[in-house]
Amino acid sequence: MTLEKIIADLKKGKVASCYLLYGEEDYLIGDALEQIVNELVPESDRDFGLFLLDGDQADFDWLKDHLLSPSLLGGRKVVVVKNTTIFQSRENLVELIRKIRDHLTERPEKAAGYFLSFLKISGFAWEDMLGEGWQKITDEQWRKAVENDAGDDRHQWLPRVIEVCEHMGLTADGGADSAGRFSELLAQGLPAGNCLILTAEAVDKRKKIFKVIEKSGVVLHFGELKNEAATKEKLKGEAQKLLGRYGKSLTPAAWMALGKKTGFQLRPSLNELLKLVSYSGERAVIEESDVEIVVGKTKEDSIFDLTTALAEKNAPAALTALRAFMDQGTHHLMILTMVGREIRLLLQASILLRSGKIAKINNNMDYGWFQKNIHPVLAGLAPQGAKKEDLLVNKHPFVIYNALRHCGRFSYPDLVRFLDDLVDIDRAMKSSSTDPQLLLERFLINACAKAS
Q1: Is 0.70 topped by the overall pTM?
Q2: What is the pLDDT of residue 163?
Q3: Which domains does the chain have, with CATH numbers?
Protein backbone atom coordinates (compact mmCIF):
# COMPACT_ATOMS: atom_id res chain seq x y z
CA MET A 1 0.00 0.00 0.00
CA THR A 2 1.22 3.47 -0.90
CA LEU A 3 0.01 6.91 0.14
CA GLU A 4 -1.01 7.62 -3.44
CA LYS A 5 -3.19 4.47 -3.49
CA ILE A 6 -4.77 5.40 -0.11
CA ILE A 7 -5.65 8.90 -1.33
CA ALA A 8 -7.03 7.51 -4.62
CA ASP A 9 -9.25 5.07 -2.66
CA LEU A 10 -10.48 7.83 -0.35
CA LYS A 11 -11.45 9.98 -3.34
CA LYS A 12 -13.54 7.02 -4.55
CA GLY A 13 -15.22 6.68 -1.14
CA LYS A 14 -13.27 3.57 -0.08
CA VAL A 15 -12.57 4.23 3.61
CA ALA A 16 -10.96 1.70 5.96
CA SER A 17 -12.02 1.56 9.62
CA CYS A 18 -8.43 1.96 10.79
CA TYR A 19 -5.15 3.35 9.41
CA LEU A 20 -1.70 2.82 10.92
CA LEU A 21 1.12 5.12 9.76
CA TYR A 22 4.48 4.19 11.26
CA GLY A 23 8.21 4.72 10.86
CA GLU A 24 10.98 7.11 11.94
CA GLU A 25 10.40 9.76 9.29
CA ASP A 26 7.98 11.82 11.36
CA TYR A 27 7.65 14.63 8.80
CA LEU A 28 6.50 12.20 6.11
CA ILE A 29 4.05 10.61 8.55
CA GLY A 30 2.70 14.03 9.49
CA ASP A 31 2.30 15.01 5.84
CA ALA A 32 0.51 11.73 5.05
CA LEU A 33 -1.77 12.16 8.07
CA GLU A 34 -2.71 15.66 6.92
CA GLN A 35 -3.56 14.44 3.41
CA ILE A 36 -5.70 11.57 4.72
CA VAL A 37 -7.58 13.78 7.20
CA ASN A 38 -8.21 16.36 4.47
CA GLU A 39 -9.94 13.68 2.40
CA LEU A 40 -11.93 12.27 5.32
CA VAL A 41 -13.18 15.35 7.17
CA PRO A 42 -14.06 18.70 5.54
CA GLU A 43 -12.77 21.76 7.37
CA SER A 44 -16.32 22.82 8.25
CA ASP A 45 -17.05 19.52 10.04
CA ARG A 46 -13.92 19.25 12.18
CA ASP A 47 -15.32 20.75 15.37
CA PHE A 48 -17.56 17.72 15.79
CA GLY A 49 -16.02 15.19 13.41
CA LEU A 50 -12.28 15.20 14.18
CA PHE A 51 -10.64 14.32 17.51
CA LEU A 52 -6.85 14.50 18.03
CA LEU A 53 -5.01 12.93 20.94
CA ASP A 54 -1.38 12.32 21.85
CA GLY A 55 -0.49 8.69 22.46
CA ASP A 56 0.84 9.33 25.96
CA GLN A 57 -2.53 10.82 26.97
CA ALA A 58 -4.75 8.30 25.21
CA ASP A 59 -7.30 6.90 27.67
CA PHE A 60 -8.81 3.69 26.31
CA ASP A 61 -12.27 4.23 27.79
CA TRP A 62 -12.45 7.74 26.27
CA LEU A 63 -11.34 6.41 22.90
CA LYS A 64 -13.82 3.55 23.05
CA ASP A 65 -16.73 5.90 23.77
CA HIS A 66 -15.80 8.14 20.83
CA LEU A 67 -15.13 5.30 18.41
CA LEU A 68 -18.42 3.54 19.15
CA SER A 69 -20.65 6.64 19.09
CA PRO A 70 -21.72 8.45 15.88
CA SER A 71 -20.81 12.01 15.00
CA LEU A 72 -23.13 14.66 16.43
CA LEU A 73 -23.65 16.00 12.89
CA GLY A 74 -24.36 12.60 11.43
CA GLY A 75 -21.29 12.64 9.16
CA ARG A 76 -17.98 10.84 9.44
CA LYS A 77 -16.10 10.79 12.74
CA VAL A 78 -12.30 10.46 12.75
CA VAL A 79 -10.21 9.85 15.87
CA VAL A 80 -6.44 10.39 15.52
CA VAL A 81 -3.97 9.07 18.11
CA LYS A 82 -0.45 10.36 17.46
CA ASN A 83 2.79 8.69 18.55
CA THR A 84 1.19 5.70 20.25
CA THR A 85 3.41 3.09 21.89
CA ILE A 86 0.85 0.26 22.00
CA PHE A 87 2.62 -1.51 19.12
CA GLN A 88 5.92 -1.74 20.98
CA SER A 89 7.13 -4.69 23.05
CA ARG A 90 10.24 -5.85 24.88
CA GLU A 91 11.78 -6.49 21.48
CA ASN A 92 11.98 -2.70 21.07
CA LEU A 93 13.78 -2.00 24.37
CA VAL A 94 17.36 -2.18 23.09
CA GLU A 95 16.45 0.14 20.22
CA LEU A 96 14.76 2.54 22.66
CA ILE A 97 17.93 2.65 24.77
CA ARG A 98 19.97 3.44 21.67
CA LYS A 99 17.63 6.30 20.82
CA ILE A 100 17.77 7.65 24.36
CA ARG A 101 21.56 7.78 24.22
CA ASP A 102 21.64 9.23 20.70
CA HIS A 103 19.22 12.08 21.46
CA LEU A 104 20.17 12.87 25.05
CA THR A 105 22.64 15.63 24.25
CA GLU A 106 21.10 17.46 21.31
CA ARG A 107 17.37 16.59 21.64
CA PRO A 108 16.78 15.85 25.35
CA GLU A 109 13.00 16.22 25.03
CA LYS A 110 13.04 13.41 22.45
CA ALA A 111 15.19 11.24 24.72
CA ALA A 112 12.75 11.84 27.58
CA GLY A 113 9.85 10.59 25.47
CA TYR A 114 11.75 7.45 24.56
CA PHE A 115 12.57 6.89 28.23
CA LEU A 116 8.92 7.05 29.28
CA SER A 117 8.14 4.46 26.61
CA PHE A 118 11.03 2.37 27.92
CA LEU A 119 9.58 2.43 31.45
CA LYS A 120 6.12 1.47 30.24
CA ILE A 121 7.40 -1.55 28.34
CA SER A 122 10.22 -2.72 30.62
CA GLY A 123 8.11 -2.88 33.77
CA PHE A 124 10.35 -0.54 35.78
CA ALA A 125 8.30 1.98 37.77
CA TRP A 126 9.02 5.71 37.66
CA GLU A 127 9.36 5.61 41.44
CA ASP A 128 12.10 2.98 41.09
CA MET A 129 14.23 5.52 39.24
CA LEU A 130 13.88 8.63 41.40
CA GLY A 131 16.68 9.87 43.62
CA GLU A 132 19.31 7.16 43.78
CA GLY A 133 16.73 4.43 43.19
CA TRP A 134 18.10 3.61 39.73
CA GLN A 135 21.41 2.65 41.36
CA LYS A 136 19.65 -0.08 43.36
CA ILE A 137 18.65 -1.95 40.21
CA THR A 138 20.95 -4.97 40.04
CA ASP A 139 22.59 -6.24 36.86
CA GLU A 140 20.45 -9.36 37.11
CA GLN A 141 17.23 -7.33 37.36
CA TRP A 142 18.30 -5.21 34.41
CA ARG A 143 19.15 -8.19 32.18
CA LYS A 144 15.86 -9.85 33.10
CA ALA A 145 13.90 -6.75 32.07
CA VAL A 146 16.03 -5.84 29.05
CA GLU A 147 17.23 -8.84 27.10
CA ASN A 148 20.34 -8.38 24.96
CA ASP A 149 21.49 -5.33 26.93
CA ALA A 150 23.96 -5.85 29.77
CA GLY A 151 23.36 -2.31 31.03
CA ASP A 152 27.10 -1.68 31.47
CA ASP A 153 26.75 1.99 30.54
CA ARG A 154 23.40 2.74 32.19
CA HIS A 155 25.11 4.83 34.86
CA GLN A 156 26.08 7.26 32.07
CA TRP A 157 22.63 7.91 30.61
CA LEU A 158 20.04 6.87 33.22
CA PRO A 159 20.60 9.67 35.77
CA ARG A 160 20.81 12.24 32.99
CA VAL A 161 17.55 11.27 31.31
CA ILE A 162 15.78 11.05 34.69
CA GLU A 163 16.97 14.59 35.43
CA VAL A 164 15.68 15.78 32.05
CA CYS A 165 12.25 14.20 32.68
CA GLU A 166 12.01 15.86 36.10
CA HIS A 167 13.11 19.21 34.65
CA MET A 168 10.42 18.97 31.98
CA GLY A 169 7.77 17.82 34.46
CA LEU A 170 7.34 14.45 32.71
CA THR A 171 6.47 11.29 34.59
CA ALA A 172 5.50 7.79 33.53
CA ASP A 173 1.79 7.16 33.99
CA GLY A 174 2.27 3.53 34.90
CA GLY A 175 -1.03 2.66 33.20
CA ALA A 176 -1.76 -0.82 31.95
CA ASP A 177 -1.05 -1.60 28.34
CA SER A 178 -4.27 -1.17 26.36
CA ALA A 179 -3.11 -3.05 23.23
CA GLY A 180 -5.21 -6.10 24.10
CA ARG A 181 -8.41 -4.12 24.55
CA PHE A 182 -7.70 -2.17 21.36
CA SER A 183 -7.33 -5.47 19.48
CA GLU A 184 -10.72 -6.68 20.70
CA LEU A 185 -12.41 -3.39 19.84
CA LEU A 186 -11.02 -3.28 16.31
CA ALA A 187 -11.67 -6.97 15.72
CA GLN A 188 -15.36 -6.38 16.54
CA GLY A 189 -15.46 -3.55 14.00
CA LEU A 190 -16.36 0.13 14.29
CA PRO A 191 -19.72 1.69 13.41
CA ALA A 192 -20.10 2.77 9.78
CA GLY A 193 -18.64 6.24 9.26
CA ASN A 194 -16.19 6.04 12.17
CA CYS A 195 -12.45 5.81 11.53
CA LEU A 196 -9.36 5.47 13.73
CA ILE A 197 -5.94 6.72 12.59
CA LEU A 198 -2.84 5.76 14.59
CA THR A 199 0.72 6.97 14.12
CA ALA A 200 3.72 5.27 15.70
CA GLU A 201 7.47 5.33 15.43
CA ALA A 202 8.17 1.64 16.06
CA VAL A 203 6.03 -1.49 15.97
CA ASP A 204 6.40 -5.15 16.84
CA LYS A 205 4.70 -6.88 13.92
CA ARG A 206 4.12 -10.00 16.01
CA LYS A 207 1.70 -8.22 18.32
CA LYS A 208 -1.96 -9.13 17.93
CA ILE A 209 -3.09 -5.54 17.45
CA PHE A 210 -0.74 -5.08 14.49
CA LYS A 211 -2.06 -8.24 12.84
CA VAL A 212 -5.66 -7.13 13.43
CA ILE A 213 -5.06 -3.76 11.74
CA GLU A 214 -3.05 -5.33 8.94
CA LYS A 215 -5.97 -7.66 8.23
CA SER A 216 -8.92 -5.31 8.58
CA GLY A 217 -7.36 -1.86 8.09
CA VAL A 218 -4.51 -0.17 6.22
CA VAL A 219 -0.84 -0.13 7.27
CA LEU A 220 1.61 2.34 5.72
CA HIS A 221 5.31 2.21 6.61
CA PHE A 222 7.69 5.15 6.23
CA GLY A 223 11.15 3.58 6.29
CA GLU A 224 14.11 5.46 7.70
CA LEU A 225 16.31 7.10 5.08
CA LYS A 226 19.56 5.21 5.44
CA ASN A 227 22.14 7.71 4.26
CA GLU A 228 22.78 11.42 3.80
CA ALA A 229 22.35 11.29 0.04
CA ALA A 230 18.90 9.68 0.33
CA THR A 231 17.87 12.21 2.98
CA LYS A 232 18.95 15.14 0.82
CA GLU A 233 17.16 13.72 -2.21
CA LYS A 234 13.93 13.21 -0.27
CA LEU A 235 14.19 16.68 1.25
CA LYS A 236 14.78 18.23 -2.16
CA GLY A 237 11.61 16.62 -3.50
CA GLU A 238 9.50 17.70 -0.51
CA ALA A 239 10.98 21.21 -0.61
CA GLN A 240 10.19 21.58 -4.30
CA LYS A 241 6.59 20.54 -3.67
CA LEU A 242 6.27 23.03 -0.82
CA LEU A 243 7.89 25.87 -2.75
CA GLY A 244 5.81 25.06 -5.81
CA ARG A 245 2.59 25.59 -3.84
CA TYR A 246 3.71 29.16 -3.15
CA GLY A 247 5.39 29.89 -6.49
CA LYS A 248 8.82 30.19 -4.87
CA SER A 249 12.33 28.89 -5.50
CA LEU A 250 15.66 28.77 -3.65
CA THR A 251 19.02 29.77 -5.07
CA PRO A 252 21.73 27.06 -4.79
CA ALA A 253 23.52 29.14 -2.15
CA ALA A 254 20.31 29.49 -0.12
CA TRP A 255 19.75 25.73 -0.32
CA MET A 256 23.25 25.02 1.04
CA ALA A 257 22.90 27.64 3.77
CA LEU A 258 19.60 26.11 4.87
CA GLY A 259 21.11 22.62 4.88
CA LYS A 260 24.08 23.78 6.94
CA LYS A 261 21.78 25.15 9.62
CA THR A 262 19.33 22.23 9.69
CA GLY A 263 21.55 19.28 8.77
CA PHE A 264 19.23 18.60 5.80
CA GLN A 265 16.78 16.95 8.22
CA LEU A 266 13.26 16.83 6.84
CA ARG A 267 11.13 18.40 9.55
CA PRO A 268 13.52 21.19 10.68
CA SER A 269 14.36 22.10 7.07
CA LEU A 270 10.75 22.28 5.89
CA ASN A 271 9.64 24.18 9.00
CA GLU A 272 12.31 26.79 8.31
CA LEU A 273 11.36 26.81 4.64
CA LEU A 274 7.82 27.83 5.56
CA LYS A 275 9.24 30.78 7.53
CA LEU A 276 11.33 31.76 4.51
CA VAL A 277 8.26 31.63 2.24
CA SER A 278 6.47 34.03 4.56
CA TYR A 279 9.49 36.31 4.99
CA SER A 280 10.18 36.62 1.25
CA GLY A 281 6.76 38.18 0.65
CA GLU A 282 6.17 39.04 -3.01
CA ARG A 283 9.62 37.92 -4.12
CA ALA A 284 9.67 34.62 -6.02
CA VAL A 285 13.31 33.78 -5.26
CA ILE A 286 14.65 33.11 -1.75
CA GLU A 287 18.29 34.20 -1.38
CA GLU A 288 21.11 33.08 0.92
CA SER A 289 20.83 36.38 2.82
CA ASP A 290 17.20 35.52 3.63
CA VAL A 291 18.31 32.24 5.20
CA GLU A 292 20.95 33.99 7.31
CA ILE A 293 18.36 36.45 8.61
CA VAL A 294 15.41 34.11 9.17
CA VAL A 295 17.02 30.85 10.28
CA GLY A 296 18.55 31.49 13.67
CA LYS A 297 21.38 29.71 15.35
CA THR A 298 20.75 26.02 15.80
CA LYS A 299 21.83 23.98 18.81
CA GLU A 300 24.56 22.52 16.60
CA ASP A 301 25.84 26.05 15.92
CA SER A 302 25.89 26.78 19.66
CA ILE A 303 27.71 23.52 20.43
CA PHE A 304 30.42 24.36 17.92
CA ASP A 305 30.68 27.96 19.17
CA LEU A 306 30.99 26.85 22.81
CA THR A 307 33.53 24.07 22.32
CA THR A 308 35.62 26.15 19.90
CA ALA A 309 35.72 29.11 22.29
CA LEU A 310 36.70 26.80 25.17
CA ALA A 311 39.48 25.15 23.14
CA GLU A 312 40.77 28.57 22.08
CA LYS A 313 40.57 29.94 25.65
CA ASN A 314 38.26 32.71 24.48
CA ALA A 315 36.24 33.43 27.63
CA PRO A 316 33.92 36.16 26.21
CA ALA A 317 32.96 33.97 23.23
CA ALA A 318 32.46 30.95 25.51
CA LEU A 319 30.13 32.90 27.82
CA THR A 320 28.17 34.26 24.85
CA ALA A 321 27.75 30.74 23.44
CA LEU A 322 26.69 29.46 26.86
CA ARG A 323 23.97 32.11 27.11
CA ALA A 324 22.75 31.22 23.61
CA PHE A 325 22.54 27.58 24.69
CA MET A 326 20.57 28.48 27.83
CA ASP A 327 18.25 30.76 25.83
CA GLN A 328 17.44 27.83 23.52
CA GLY A 329 16.19 25.93 26.56
CA THR A 330 19.00 23.36 26.52
CA HIS A 331 19.19 21.54 29.83
CA HIS A 332 22.26 22.45 31.90
CA LEU A 333 23.30 18.80 32.25
CA MET A 334 23.40 18.51 28.47
CA ILE A 335 25.73 21.53 28.28
CA LEU A 336 27.89 20.04 31.02
CA THR A 337 28.16 16.84 29.00
CA MET A 338 29.38 18.72 25.90
CA VAL A 339 31.94 20.68 27.91
CA GLY A 340 33.18 17.46 29.52
CA ARG A 341 33.47 15.82 26.10
CA GLU A 342 35.64 18.69 24.83
CA ILE A 343 37.95 18.51 27.86
CA ARG A 344 38.34 14.74 27.43
CA LEU A 345 39.23 15.20 23.74
CA LEU A 346 41.84 17.84 24.63
CA LEU A 347 43.25 15.55 27.34
CA GLN A 348 43.52 12.63 24.91
CA ALA A 349 45.25 14.90 22.39
CA SER A 350 47.70 15.97 25.08
CA ILE A 351 48.41 12.35 25.99
CA LEU A 352 48.89 11.49 22.32
CA LEU A 353 51.45 14.26 21.85
CA ARG A 354 53.26 13.34 25.09
CA SER A 355 53.54 9.73 23.91
CA GLY A 356 55.89 10.73 21.09
CA LYS A 357 54.03 8.54 18.59
CA ILE A 358 53.28 11.45 16.28
CA ALA A 359 55.32 14.43 15.15
CA LYS A 360 55.29 17.66 17.12
CA ILE A 361 52.71 20.15 15.89
CA ASN A 362 51.63 23.73 16.56
CA ASN A 363 48.28 25.50 16.58
CA ASN A 364 48.96 26.94 13.10
CA MET A 365 49.17 23.46 11.53
CA ASP A 366 47.53 23.27 8.09
CA TYR A 367 44.64 20.81 7.82
CA GLY A 368 45.88 19.42 4.50
CA TRP A 369 49.34 18.77 6.00
CA PHE A 370 47.69 17.05 8.99
CA GLN A 371 45.65 14.77 6.71
CA LYS A 372 48.74 13.80 4.75
CA ASN A 373 51.35 13.44 7.50
CA ILE A 374 49.59 12.91 10.87
CA HIS A 375 46.23 11.26 10.34
CA PRO A 376 47.56 8.10 8.61
CA VAL A 377 49.83 7.46 11.63
CA LEU A 378 46.84 7.41 13.99
CA ALA A 379 45.39 4.23 12.48
CA GLY A 380 45.87 1.31 14.83
CA LEU A 381 46.72 3.41 17.88
CA ALA A 382 43.44 2.60 19.67
CA PRO A 383 44.11 0.19 22.56
CA GLN A 384 42.47 -3.23 22.50
CA GLY A 385 39.16 -3.43 24.39
CA ALA A 386 38.52 0.33 24.36
CA LYS A 387 35.11 1.56 23.25
CA LYS A 388 35.47 3.01 19.78
CA GLU A 389 33.18 5.99 20.40
CA ASP A 390 35.19 7.12 23.45
CA LEU A 391 38.52 7.61 21.65
CA LEU A 392 39.83 10.71 19.93
CA VAL A 393 41.69 8.66 17.28
CA ASN A 394 38.35 7.27 16.06
CA LYS A 395 36.72 10.67 15.61
CA HIS A 396 36.36 12.58 12.35
CA PRO A 397 39.79 13.84 11.13
CA PHE A 398 38.74 17.47 11.59
CA VAL A 399 37.86 16.82 15.26
CA ILE A 400 41.29 15.22 15.83
CA TYR A 401 42.98 18.08 13.98
CA ASN A 402 41.38 20.73 16.18
CA ALA A 403 42.05 18.83 19.43
CA LEU A 404 45.75 18.44 18.56
CA ARG A 405 46.01 22.11 17.58
CA HIS A 406 44.39 23.44 20.73
CA CYS A 407 45.54 21.08 23.49
CA GLY A 408 48.89 22.90 23.74
CA ARG A 409 47.07 25.86 25.27
CA PHE A 410 46.41 23.75 28.38
CA SER A 411 48.80 21.96 30.69
CA TYR A 412 48.25 18.25 31.27
CA PRO A 413 47.62 18.73 35.06
CA ASP A 414 45.06 21.46 34.32
CA LEU A 415 43.07 19.22 31.97
CA VAL A 416 43.00 16.45 34.59
CA ARG A 417 41.89 18.95 37.22
CA PHE A 418 39.15 20.27 34.95
CA LEU A 419 37.62 16.79 34.79
CA ASP A 420 37.55 16.69 38.59
CA ASP A 421 35.96 20.16 38.58
CA LEU A 422 33.25 18.95 36.20
CA VAL A 423 32.43 16.03 38.51
CA ASP A 424 32.04 18.53 41.38
CA ILE A 425 29.81 20.73 39.21
CA ASP A 426 27.66 17.74 38.25
CA ARG A 427 27.23 16.89 41.94
CA ALA A 428 26.41 20.52 42.81
CA MET A 429 23.80 20.74 40.04
CA LYS A 430 22.02 17.68 41.41
CA SER A 431 22.33 18.35 45.13
CA SER A 432 22.45 22.10 45.72
CA SER A 433 20.41 25.19 44.90
CA THR A 434 23.32 26.95 43.15
CA ASP A 435 22.33 28.41 39.77
CA PRO A 436 23.59 25.94 37.10
CA GLN A 437 24.43 28.77 34.71
CA LEU A 438 26.62 30.38 37.37
CA LEU A 439 28.47 27.09 37.91
CA LEU A 440 29.11 26.73 34.18
CA GLU A 441 30.19 30.37 33.83
CA ARG A 442 32.71 29.99 36.65
CA PHE A 443 34.17 26.90 35.05
CA LEU A 444 34.49 28.50 31.62
CA ILE A 445 36.18 31.61 33.03
CA ASN A 446 38.63 29.44 34.97
CA ALA A 447 39.33 27.09 32.05
CA CYS A 448 39.85 29.98 29.64
CA ALA A 449 42.22 31.87 31.93
CA LYS A 450 45.51 32.62 30.16
CA ALA A 451 47.52 31.03 32.96
CA SER A 452 45.55 28.33 34.74
Answers
A1: no
A2: 81
A3: 3-86+177-222 (3.40.50.300), 90-168 (no CATH), 228-294 (1.10.8), 299-447 (1.20.272.10)
